[in-house]
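Our preliminary data section would be incomplete without showing what the modeling component actually yields. Below, a chain of 619 amino acids is followed by its predicted structure, encoded as tokens that our downstream tools consume directly.
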Amino acid sequence: MFDLVVLVILLPLLGVIVNAFFGRRLGERWVSYIGPGAVGLSFLVALILVLSLAGLPVDQRHHETILWTWIPIGNFQVDLGFLLDPLSAVMILIITGVGFLIHIYSVGYMHGDPRFARYFTYLNLFVASMLTLVLGNNFLVLFMGWELVGLCSYLLIGFWFERVSASDAAVKAFVVNRIGDFGFILGVMLIWTTFGTLHFTEVFEAAEKSLQSGAPVAIAITLLLLIGATGKSAQIPLYVWLPDAMAGPTPVSALIHAATMVTAGVYMMARSHVLFELAPFTGQVVAWIGAATALLAASIGVAQYDIKKVLAYSTVSQLGFMVAAAGMGAFGAAMFHLTTHAFFKGLLFLGAGSVIHGVHDEQDMRKMGGLRSSMPTTFWTFVVAALALAGIPPLSGFFSKDEILATASSQNIGIYLLLTIAAFLTAFYIGRQVLMVFFGQARSDVHAHESPRVMTIPLIVLAVFAAIAGFFNLPGVGSFSGWLGEQAGELNLAVAAISTLLALAGLGLAWLLYGRSPVQQDQRDPLAVRLGPVFTLLERKWYVDEIVDLTIARPFKALCSFLAGEMDLGIVDGFVNGVAWLVSLFSRWLRTIQTGFVRSYALAMLLGAVLLIVYVATR
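Predicted structure:
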């Protein structure tokens, strides 16, 4: 039964093969069945496997499927194998379930695109790559999936490559993630040299037996793995690629932000929790990076106007909550927030895509307004997701976010304060977005319309889960935490009350600024009027891009220009060309000796013979 886990990956790969080779000839209709159908079947197989796993005793919920020995080189042996356990079970349900809904939605969103078959080929490959990442039974298979999702993000972010912004964003995502991946692969190498294996079970057992808490090698390994996580899960300092990734199709944004790529870093830390628990110093670094990222991204989100950019910075911020939880050792809380976030953030992005579709590709919220009457399904589902993100009870975000805040309040008051301020700003910017997009009067002449059912049905399904997913881990019940082998956190009434009041305050402040007197066409943003230069600072994203450009990008480009120009063309090519010039000069001189007259050659031979006789006679 559990060997069928291979089908979870093979089914999307089958969709890749069919659409890649036959998609254009089959046409849009058949591609619309094959692309989503492959992921839908994968979800059904995953659901059957997870239900079967749940029927086993707790200590038997661990099954490995070894396909073959992948790399046998001396003592270095790596199998191509897959691991189904409670952690990977959660991930495959999220990836295939949310991914299936995004595939269905894409049928309507991408209708008529000339590269329709290519789009679903890439989308299926993205899902298969992420499934490989989470199902791998060792660090090398995980890394293979890790690199494949990076490739797929490049292909999908730059899908409309004729747009300069899309191609630039794809390159930026690829390059920034290569920095993180370099640290990650160094960490994998150090794991091998330390433990002599890359197999998860063997590594973690050896670490528990041979390493003490705070061991330098444990700190080194986890810090290197952290570098990889900051790239994939968009944390300081490698978060800069994710907001620009909005240049791709909106369903791609939903897939990246909700179900695939950005969750990889959090999953990797949860999978490697044994190593991170042996490195308390790294845990503190992880927690502070997560909390700082949550606050930084939330502050930027309050001053953005692109409907997708607001959600992009929201994702960076919410990932900060998950990373902070992992740093504090609350890996169950991190995974629970990852799960609820997949529902409400996937819904927010698909809702944003529905809005963009309905207003004919407009993304500037200043040109929207009054859409709740013309797009009722999109409006109500978006509101559910927005309130879940804000942490309003009893929606899902309230339970998962408050579990992280409760952990922080008992472990580190500084991290708690950073996360609490970020939670307040989250409620404000999502309230601002809802009011600017759906309330007031229309601020453009575009006639908005509701999206087709193929796009609205996934919104409704996600809205249901965004509303009820918090009950998967009720305090005192702990079904989600118990599934992962952890105890459910107790509800801290004081923390819950403070966070709820702050969320309501954030929404209330948004209403005072944007709801009571809706923004009119050509009217300056009321928050900009009150904050002045501070708003400009937030709108320009703390000038991080400019600082990176000035301190890293430009010097690097200048160095590359120097190496390519003065060094390569001037010195290296100059030396090679100089040697060639000397050879050519010598050749031209030798050529003058070749006259073609036999008498000249005979005279030269005679003179040579005479000189040779004279030389011999005088010795």
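The CA atoms of residues 51 and 74 lie 40 Å apart. The chain has two domains: 2-178+334-539, 546-617. Preliminary results of this kind motivate Aim 1 of the renewal.
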